[in-house]
Design goal:
Number of helices: 4
Structural class: mainly alpha
Order of helices and strands: HHHH
Number of strands: 0
Helix content: over 70%
Strand content: under 5%
Shape: rod-shaped
Largest sheet: none
Length: 141
């Protein structure tokens, strides 16, 4: 009976060659996981960079539209022009705040990145609507 018990214990312990195979497989799995992680990081960095470029382009376009609105305001009477100038300052401030927000963003968790993108997109859409509304008012006159 002692031999059966002893034989049973030995069969539970893997042979050194089996351990070596497990180590090799674990190393391969680790290398694959590391490669996938590196690719995910690269994709994330690319996405962030692409988003920032897109936002910078939209912000530059906003600046151009605001400048066009300012030039149109110069053709108006003094009272109207002063009102327009106040609106243009407000639009410029919002545009500059968004520009700073995009420029100053620091890498964070994926969840915070998604929240940041959503927030910037919402603010950008709101600003775009304000600029468009002002331009439409100018066209109606």
């Amino acid at each position: 009976m002692a031999m059966i018990a002893h034989g049973g214990i030995q069969s539970c312990n893997p042979k050194p060659s089996e351990k070596a195979e497990e180590v090799v497989e674990a190393k391969e799995d680790l290398e694959i996981s590391q490669k996938e992680l590196d690719e995910a990081i690269d994709d994330s960095a690319r996405e962030e960079s692409q988003f920032k470029i897109e936002m910078e382009n939209r912000l530059a376009e906003n600046e151009k539209k605001i400048l066009d609105l300012k030039m149109a305001a110069n053709k108006e009477r003094k009272e109207t022009r002063e009102k327009y100038e106040e609106e243009m300052k407000d639009l410029e401030t919002k545009n500059q705040n968004l520009k700073n927000k995009v420029k100053d963003y620091k890498k964070s968790t994926a969840e915070k990145w998604q929240d940041f993108k959503m927030s910037v997109n919402m603010e950008m859409d709101e600003l775009g609507k304000s600029i468009s509304a002002r331009a439409e008012k100018n066209m109606k006159k």
